[in-house]
Amino acid sequence: MNNIIKTENINDFVKIVCQIIKKQATACIKSKGSFTFMLSGGRTPKKIFTELAQYYKNQIDWSKVHFFWVDERCVSPDHNESNYKIANDLLISKLHTVGSVHRIRGELAPIEAANKYNI
To answer: pTM score, two decimals?
Structure first.
């Protein structure tokens, strides 16, 4: 998957990304029994999370999806800047069930949080 996605606007981009996520999740679940979903922060994922929660809630077997984060801010999980909070508020909490959620513990000292996440 080395393709560059070019679109006219962010909404078209979000739709294409969500279709790709659905396709990959479905294929991985079928072949391996689960799908690992690596999440990041920022503004663009917010739109993707919202789209997935609204239109893909019943199109992906979320009970077989394992959520991980590629980055996190050094804040508590209920802080508005927490990447976990954003993903949870916009996507995870909207799903009926999920496989597992492996958040980075941003409330800890950075080295300690990284070491615990590395386990």
So the answer is: 0.92
